[in-house]
Amino acid sequence: MSLHAKLLKRLAPWRNANTWRIAFSGGLDSTVLLHLLAHLAKTESLPALSAIHVHHGLQAAADAWPEHCRSVCDALGVPLEVVRVQVQPGASLERAARDARYGAFIDATHANDVLLTAQHRDDQAETLLFRLLRGAGVRGLSGMPGERVLGQGHLLRPLLEVTRAELEAYAALHQLSWIEDPSNEDRQFSRNYLRHQVFPVLTERWPQAQATMARSAAHLREAQGLLDELAQIDRVEAGSRSDFDWLGLPSLDLAVLEKLSAARQRNVLSYWLKIRTRLPDSDHWSGWEDLRDATGDARPIWRLAEGELHRASGRIWWLSGPWLRTPPVAGRWADPTLPLALLDNGQLSMTGQVPDGPLHIRYREGGEIMSLPERGHRDLKRLLNERGVPLFARGRLPLLYCGEQLLAVAGLQGLNGSVRDGWNLHWQPPTEDQGLS
Prior knowledge:
This protein has 437 residues and is an alpha+beta fold. It folds into 3 domains: 3-222, HUPs (Rossmann fold, 3-Layer(aba) Sandwich); 239-319, Uridine Diphospho-n-acetylenolpyruvylglucosamine Reductase, domain 3, CATH 3.30.465.60; 331-434, no CATH class. The protein is built from 14 helices and 20 strands. It has helices at residues 3-11, 28-43, 65-76, 93-108, 121-133, 138-141, 164-173, 190-205, 209-238, 254-258, 262-273, 286-293, 380-387, 391-394, and strands spanning 19-23, 48-55, 80-84, 113-116, 147-150, 153-156, 251-253, 301-304, 307-312, 315-319, 331-332, 340-341, 347-352, 359-362, 369-372, 376-379, 399-402, 405-409, 417-418, 423-428. A 6-stranded mixed beta sheet has the order 3-2-1-4-6-5, sandwiched between helices. It has a 4-stranded antiparallel beta sheet with strand order 7-10-9-8. Strands 11-14-17-18 form a 4-stranded antiparallel beta sheet, with no helix packed on it. Strand 5 and strand 6 (153-156) form a beta hairpin. Helix 9 packs across helix 11 (262-273). It is elongated, with a radius of gyration of 28 Å. The model is unreliable at 433-437 (pLDDT under 50). It is found in: Cytoplasm. It holds the Pfam family TilS. One of its GO terms (biological process) is tRNA modification. It is an enzyme of class 6 (ligase).
């Protein structure tokens, strides 16, 4: 089967997309992909083609690459967008450059768009070996997925079944020109070391090494799919409703998780958390064990890259964004007939007859007393204990005051208004959209 036919077959499910955008570095692989698609577009009804070139600014030679990419795209009649990014300094230049590059791809990928990248079978084998040497688990060893969500659209890797030799042969046949990145020869980068130092030795002894390693990655993707199916079953079981779903926070029933084996606990937590944060490696899961095994009066927290797991009210809760910041003092509510936006703490509104007097919003400091019909004066801490309010939420419950009198606690039925006077205080807690992306 020709490269054109392989590519068309691989992309068949995506022909209703708005745009096929090629990630075009100007190197051999992406040049072949661009050329293949541009020529297919002459005989096939395809989505609109465009290309995007990300300029990292990491080496002087790269300054000439956007112009080369533009000339190639102009010759093929494909629009090109050049995006300049700032690579953040860090321990791994490879990773920082990748993060910057994919950040640009995410920004460029809109609803029903497809971003096409040119990784091939040899890249897949390199990825498997690279991750194996880093001690990756099944998910990591399953290699690069052929497709995944990216931004509001999808990322596809349609050449994963094609070898580098096939791409080189195509480029030679069509007399294509491409950029040779000098950094690809630098052995200090792990992937370059594997490509130039390790794989030649492996393939000399085992000529089909790359093919068999790519096949192993496919087997591991299948195994990961089964693990994900099991995790989904466990997540549904542990995701039962709670009295505090109105907080809008992801949570799981701890008692359900504790019935699972340690391996199944890690599996379902990894599945649940992977869309929320970068996960620690297998040697750094002691934070989960400390959270799970803490005594009843403890307040354990497992801090992860993009948020925290808290244990409260028999559940574990994911907190991120504004939930990790202490809301500042709110102050006077000048017009309670209008909603009040609370900095880092959502929004308040009131229904019914507005109470008389100047109204203020405060947060707990300790020692608050509330007067309740038929119960007299009650300590707020005790009232919150009675309702089992999670500790992490108590300090951000908006309290409505008239002078020094505590009138209502937003969000808690029976404490959030006055049945006699016919008014209620409503709180919409903060969402992640208000904080970290």
